[in-house]
Amino acid sequence: MRLRLERRLDVPTALVWATPVVSVALALLAGALFLALTGSNPAEVYGMMLRGAFGSRYGTTETFVKAIPLMLCGLGVGVAFRMLLWNIGAEGQLYMGAFAATWVCLSFPEWPAYLLLPAMLAAGMLFGGLWALLPALPRAYLKANEVITTLMLNYVAILWVSYLVHGPWRDPAGLNFPLSPPFPRTAWLPTFPGTRVHVGLVMAIVAAAVLSVLLWRTRWGYEVRVIGESPRAARYAGMNVERNILLVMLLSGALAGLAGACEVSGVVHRLQHQISPGYGYSAIIVAWLSRLNPWAILVVAVLFGGLLVGGYAVQLAGIPAAVAYMLQGAILFFVLGGEFLTRYRIRLVVPGEVAPERRAAGAAGSGSAPGAGDAVAPARNGRAGDFGGN
Amino acid sequence: MDWVLAVSICQAAVTAGTPILFAALGEILAERAGVLNLGVEGMMLVGAVSGFLVTVRTGSPWLGLLGALVAGGLMALIHAALCVGLRANQVVSGLALTLFGTGLSGYLGKPVIGVPAPSTFRTVEVPVLADIPFLGPVVFGHDYLVYISYLLVPALWFFLYRTRPGLHMRAVGENPAAADAMGINVGWTRYIYTVAGGVLAGAGGAYLSLAYAPTWLENMTAGRGWIAVALVIFAGWNPLVALAGSYLFGGVDALGLRIQAVGTVVPSFFLSMLPYIFTILVLLVSTRGGRRLGAPGALGLAYDREGH
Predict the structure, then answer these.
(1) Domain locations in chain B as residue ranges
(2) Measured at the alpha carbon of residue B84, what is the angle toward residues B83 and B90, in degrees to the nearest 5?
(3) By the CB < 8 Å criterion, does A33 face chain B?
(4) For residue A301, which of A56, A71, A192, A364 is within the disulfide window of CB 3.0 to 4.6 Å?
(5) In this structure, what are the phi and psi dihedrals at residue A364, rounded to the nearest 5 degrees?
(6) Cβ–Cβ of B86/A147 closer than 8 Å?
(7) Which residues of chain B does A135 touch, with a Cβ-Cβ cutoff of 8 Å?
(8) A148–B222: do the CB atoms touch at under 8 Å?
(9) Residue boundaries of the structural domains of chain A
């Protein structure tokens, strides 16, 4: 008798949704173990994080403030991932969006709010989109690896914003801090009464709705999903893969750019160095944990916003906020590991017995030749962007 | 440009290139076995902080180095367990490793930020050779870690192309099914070289915190792990080319710093962008037309004996 792994032919829906939940729980457990080993009291730290994030009205609204950029970036990253475009550049696209919105605001401070705000948001989306288009072009036409190009552009965008706030855009009244002058009230996004939560939240919900309609109710969305599952099949079907790469990256970057515009216009009310504490990177985890589902991204973003706010809360007790990022990484590990169980079934095999699916597979002639066709393993599991063979 | 400046820039290019070289050599090992590990940045960070912490605790940079190697290897083990053991997506797992490593190193390193290292790897000039004009200071005026990296490059090249285990490893990366049929254990091979890759990334991190900086700062790798990943493609998965490439990247880095020191009209922020822009350009040139010469055939693909 021994253990055997079998690939599942169909995955029970309950398992698909239970896996992330169990994975998060296990990640928190592992985190607790680590905290205990490094001399912190895990119950205390988690308690503090939970209270910080959801325990008060202020905490809860702050969680939503942090969730908005995670939602927008997560939606952007998610739509790119769906086409197996590894856009790791949401962070830089967010910075470019923040830059463009600030540029509009500083150039036309006299414009009324109904003109200025839409212009700022549009500029943010445009520049975020263009910043994503930059690596999309070589990806589409040269097959240049987009993981590295999008990531490198993050550093460039962050340095660009640093240059602006240290140099030409530095607030003369800012005591030499790297900050732009504050925006006029006309450039502030409206907030929900009594909170710092701005209408970016509504934009994120609308974006999720639009994306789910686009992806599942339009021809274009169908193409994106087919290309994501099998680029070769898409090509045979006459789909223009290159054009879709450009479009998806443009959309992905525009959403991250919108997040950046919302941050300067809705939260900080000026441009500053380190406008984002890594929203673009956390968004990757948010998107994957949500299985790239737009509605799930909204929910998971709130949880991750809470993780960030909780991370700040534990700082008061002398525990580094980095603990929040560590937990995020750990969550993704467990989610990835957990996916194994949704794809494979572990079963006890008594010698002599042949599993029914194996018999069927043998009869169909595909047999179980070692590694036969591992190159055509389902895209989500196998293909790795443009690093490997096609 | 005067002679002294040229010598100092070339010397700095080797110093700045060494952490990238260690990491790139490690990534070549993992990728040659078919495992794409995008967690280099995270492994380097954890290596850097572990090496620094151990050195602060023990006073010995050699023990620190050992700590960095172990830490880098353990980080890579997570990736191997997920991608080889559980056949997870290698891109996402690598990203997770980088994010996790960034958080973990930030957490562990918080108490020692800005603390000077009690002991570091200091420059040890090679007798006689260091007196050769130009080549002497540029090649032989460094610390032990740089000399180790010199030895590692031909050693890895020999291992890859001239030994049986090296052949097996390449077979696993090119065609795991064929390697499996030959009786090579695909899973173990991938585990071993992924972990070995992490060990070398840890060494790259230790070089930063114990020789280059030498101190611990959050996110001190500043994208060098990613540059190493790009360098592997540029180098065509060949350790010898990776050596040249590392110093080229190191040279761009050093040149930017040197121009800043001299003082120019170009703001330092733009000079700091140079290595990143250079990386993108190099990547575009080395992947022109979608041809990636030397890419292992099964890179990034999970191996599943049962087929699909």
Answers:
(1) 19-127+134-222
(2) 25
(3) no
(4) A71
(5) -75, -5
(6) no
(7) 280
(8) no
(9) 65-293
The answer on pLDDT for A359 being more than 80 is: no
Residue type present at position B187: G
Q: Which helix (H) or strand (E) holds B5?
A: helix B3-32
Please report the residues numbered 229 through 288 in chain B whose beta carbons come closer than 8 angstroms to any beta carbon of chain A. Answer: 229-230, 233, 267, 269-270, 272-273, 276-277, 279-280, 283-284, 287-288
| Yes or no, beta carbons of A329 and B97 under 8 Å apart | yes
Which residues of chain A have a CB within 8 Å of the CB of B225?
none
First to last CA, chain B: 60
Collapse the DSSP code of B236 into the 3-class scheme (helix H, G, I; strand E, B; otherwise coil) and give the result: coil
For chains A and B, CB pairs below 8 A equal 227
Which value does ipTM take for this structure? 0.86
Q: Which of A153, A155, A323 sits opposite B107 (nearest CB)?
A: A323
Q: Are A70 and A128 in contact (CB under 8 A)?
A: no
Shortest alpha-carbon distance between residue B186 and chain A (Å):
11
Q: Which two tokens stand for residue A224?
A: 């994106």
Q: Is B178 helix (H, G, I), strand (E, B) or coil?
A: helix
User: DSSP label at B109?
Assistant: H
User: Does B102 contact A329 at a Cβ distance shorter than 8 Å?
Assistant: yes
Could you write out the three-class secondary structure of B271-282?
Answer: HHHHHHHHHHHH
Mean pLDDT of chain A: 85
Measure in Å the smallest separation between the Cα of B116 and chain A Cα atoms: 20
Q: What is the DSSP letter of A264?
A: I
pTM, rounded to two decimals: 0.87
Torsion of CA B237, B240, B246, B248, to 10 degrees: -110
Nearest residue to B53 (alpha-carbon basis) of B98, B103, B118:
B118
Task: Give just the sign of the alpha carbon dihedral B143, B144, B149, B151.
Answer: positive
Is residue B27 classed as helix, strand or coil in its secondary structure?
A: helix
- CA A2, CA B246: separation in Å to the nearest integer? 48
Lowest mean pLDDT among A324-333, A381-390, B104-113: A381-390
Q: How many beta carbons lie within 10 A of that of residue A196, not counting itself?
A: 13
Tens of pLDDT, residues B67-91: 999 999 999 999 999 999 888 889 8
Closest-approach residue (CA) in chain B for A287: B92
Burial class (CB in 10 A: 0-12, 13-18, 19+), A318: exposed
Angle between helices B61-80 and B90-109 (to 10 degrees): 150
- CB contact under 8 Å between A148 and B279, yes or no, is yes
